[in-house]
Q: What sequence folds into this?
């Protein structure tokens, strides 16, 4: 069930998700992100790699961190950008998504970065439009750049990916971060465990190649990475958990629980965090937390994705180069 | 195309070769490859859009689509605006076919509750007097089982079968795919099998309690079929049908997130499609309907969760029957029985369309004539333009139909 519009080992025409994306493609993006992070560490953090390229950031669902992260990534690469966040999504009355997108496309952007609350919205647009589409989160489906930045952070900290034990804990059923991470991590040979109350574990998740736990403690045992997902308080009305207090007591990450993990285990969270709901203060701010590194790495990874998607786009138009991946080559622009 | 075409008589069960003489009478030369000759079909469940949503499809357009599809009698669901819960709207629906001058007949199903609100029982006696032969929830399941009981009791008074949607509305809420690994992988809100199973069991128990005749539509899962056997073995009068899309497409088609594949309930797993095919072969399924529902292109070309459910399958029925027969290995005769004898019996019109008469003059209809009509149908590997249905224009009810597929 290969998605022909996705990476699939070929040029990265779109980035719609990590389902079926081979490990080599993920490694390629992560390697590219190392160069990008290097650029970010300089006093003047800008290269002309995407000069003359137009990127539209189309965020139909509220987002702070992902939106800013993409915006900075685009600026570091010298792309021309516009951001568009309609106050009401097309899920309410008004212009349809297709009409909005066609209008955006009429302005001839090269890449459309989309965040949408409907599963499959980026796939729909990739089919309907000519520009490249990068998924910045669709419904409860995928959030591929978040998973890539998580993988980058893990590799940076642990020096490898294959063979690591990673726990993803929280509302697995409604988490696009969890899905993309599961696809990417399994592809890269990581031993993935998911944990949460049974109301938050989707049927058939084990078919994606993960081990399933309905308690946190046994999942965390011996883990190299513990990734806590944000608990959405607004889901209280859906009878998924009784109260924040009970959730923290049985599924929150405390020092006691973390002591079961490997002594060098790192703690991750895609943010924004709910202190003392899914994660204890001490841990969020403690030495094992890489939560803020994730945010920094997010910009580098998004620079890498945008650059590779742009290269694929140029190659498709016959403007392609062999593909500059070094910082020096990027300095010269394309 | 060397295969010999067949005359299918679902009432007698006879299958015979299409003779040169018949072929000539139908005006089909050899190159047209006349594949099937059969009586006009009975489509028990279609969703009309007039009155209320004429921009999607008028009754006249629906009648023309039925003619192209080879359907002679179309059962109309009552959830139009206003709802067909009284005799006036029933007459409007019934007479809506007349202007098309197609010979196609409409038979409206009455709403079982006022406004389909499922709080007050509709005037079933009056509805029956206006020509209704079945009442229904209109595809919107009754939540209150106590109300369901009263509806069934009252319908029995007038010998009206009650067509209901087998599902648990709470378990199915918001669902876009059957629960399991595929829904989880695609990130689609799931519908557990238990929903349809509970729907069948609940309706079956109420049929036993009240003695009413219940018709369940659509049954789309293996679990639903299993529950159906269970309630029948207890003696409940329960008939069941499925809709054409569930015999051809499955949940894997949702990987495209294309709104054309949004139907309600969602497309089932491959194992369910296989179980449904077997149920058609062995007679567990009494009827197959189109479930035809025309919507506008803009209502489909949108995010999957807000795409309007339904397929405008009416005009493509013969092509679909042919393709389903090939792909699911179901004898065409079994499918044709489910679209003639089976539904006619439920309506108490046992011999509707039964005479395979003599052909005197023929009017050809082609799916190529669909210009301007509802097109919300996915491609299914058959060139719809090639479908031609030939009508015997000498009889309005019992015309022979030849389909070239």
A:
């Amino acid at each position: 069930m290969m998605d022909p519009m996705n990476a699939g080992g070929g040029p990265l025409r779109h980035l719609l998700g990590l389902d079926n994306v081979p490990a080599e493609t993920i490694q390629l993006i992560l390697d590219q992100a190392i160069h990008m992070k290097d650029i970010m560490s300089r006093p003047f953090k800008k290269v002309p790699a995407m000069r003359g390229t137009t990127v539209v950031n189309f965020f139909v669902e509220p987002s702070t961190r992902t939106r800013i992260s993409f915006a900075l990534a685009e600026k570091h690469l010298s792309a021309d950008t516009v951001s568009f966040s309609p106050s009401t999504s097309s899920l309410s009355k008004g212009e349809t998504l297709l009409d909005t997108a066609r209008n955006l496309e009429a302005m001839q952007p090269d890449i459309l970065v989309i965040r949408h609350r409907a599963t499959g919205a980026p796939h729909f647009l990739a089919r309907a439009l000519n520009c490249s589409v990068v998924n910045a989160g669709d419904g409860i489906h995928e959030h591929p750049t978040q998973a890539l930045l998580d993988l980058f952070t893990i590799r940076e900290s642990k020096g490898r990916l294959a063979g690591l034990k990673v726990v993803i804990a929280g509302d697995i059923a409604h988490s696009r971060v969890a899905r993309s991470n599961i696809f990417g991590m399994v592809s890269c040979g990581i031993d993935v465990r998911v944990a949460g109350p049974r109301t938050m574990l989707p049927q058939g998740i084990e078919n994606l190649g993960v081990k399933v736990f309905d308690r946190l403690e046994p999942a965390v045992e011996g883990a190299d990475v513990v990734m806590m997902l944000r608990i959405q308080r607004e889901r209280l009305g859906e009878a998924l958990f009784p109260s924040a207090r009970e959730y923290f007591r049985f599924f929150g990450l405390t020092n006691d629980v973390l002591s079961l993990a490997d002594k060098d285990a790192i703690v991750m969270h895609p943010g924004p965090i709910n202190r003392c709901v899914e994660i204890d203060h001490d841990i969020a701010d403690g030495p094992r937390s890489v939560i803020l590194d994730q945010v920094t790495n997010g910009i580098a990874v998004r620079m890498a994705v945008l650059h590779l998607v742009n290269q694929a786009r140029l190659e498709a138009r016959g403007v392609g180069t062999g593909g500059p991946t070094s910082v020096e080559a990027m300095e010269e622009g394309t | 195309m060397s295969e010999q075409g067949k005359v299918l008589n679902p009432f007698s069960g006879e299958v015979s070769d299409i003779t040169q003489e018949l072929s000539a009478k139908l005006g089909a030369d050899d190159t047209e490859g006349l594949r099937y000759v059969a009586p006009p079909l009975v489509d028990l469940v279609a969703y009309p859009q007039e009155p209320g949503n004429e921009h999607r499809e008028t009754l006249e357009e629906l009648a023309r689509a039925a003619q192209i599809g080879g359907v002679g009698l179309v059962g109309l669901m009552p959830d139009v605006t206003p709802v067909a819960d009284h005799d006036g709207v029933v007459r409007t629906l019934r007479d809506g076919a007349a202007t098309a001058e197609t010979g196609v007949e409409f038979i409206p199903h009455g709403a079982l509750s006022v406004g389909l609100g499922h709080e007050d029982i509709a005037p079933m006696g009056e509805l029956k007097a206006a020509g209704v032969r079945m009442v229904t929830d209109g595809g919107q399941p009754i939540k209150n089982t106590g109300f369901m009981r009263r509806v069934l009791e009252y319908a029995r008074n007038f010998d009206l079968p009650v067509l209901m949607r087998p599902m648990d509305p709470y378990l199915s809420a918001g669902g876009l795919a059957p629960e399991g690994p595929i829904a989880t992988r695609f990130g689609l809100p799931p519908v557990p099998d238990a929903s349809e199973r509970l729907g069948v069991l609940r309706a079956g128990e109420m049929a036993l309690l009240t003695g009413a005749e219940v018709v369940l539509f659509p049954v789309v899962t293996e679990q639903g079929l299993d529950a159906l056997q269970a309630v029948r073995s207890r003696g409940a009068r329960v008939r069941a049908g499925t809709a054409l899309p569930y015999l051809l497409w499955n949940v894997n088609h949702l990987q495209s997130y294309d709104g054309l594949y949004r139907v309600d309930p969602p497309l089932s797993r491959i194992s369910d499609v296989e179980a449904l095919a077997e149920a058609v072969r062995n007679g567990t399924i009494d009827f197959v309907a189109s479930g035809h529902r025309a919507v506008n292109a803009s209502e489909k070309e949108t995010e999957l969760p807000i795409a309007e459910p339904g397929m405008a399958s009416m005009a493509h029925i013969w092509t679909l029957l042919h393709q389903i027969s090939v792909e699911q290995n179901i004898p065409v005769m079994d499918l044709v029985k489910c679209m003639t004898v089976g539904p006619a019996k439920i309506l108490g019109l046992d011999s509707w369309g039964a005479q395979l008469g003599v052909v005197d003059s023929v009017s050809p209809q082609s799916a190529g004539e669909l210009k301007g009509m509802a097109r919300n149908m996915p491609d299914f590997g058959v060139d719809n333009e090639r479908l031609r249905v030939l009508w015997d224009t000498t009889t309005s009810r019992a015309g022979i139909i030849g389909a070239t597929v």
Observations:
- Chain B touches chain A through 27 residues (CB under 8 Å).
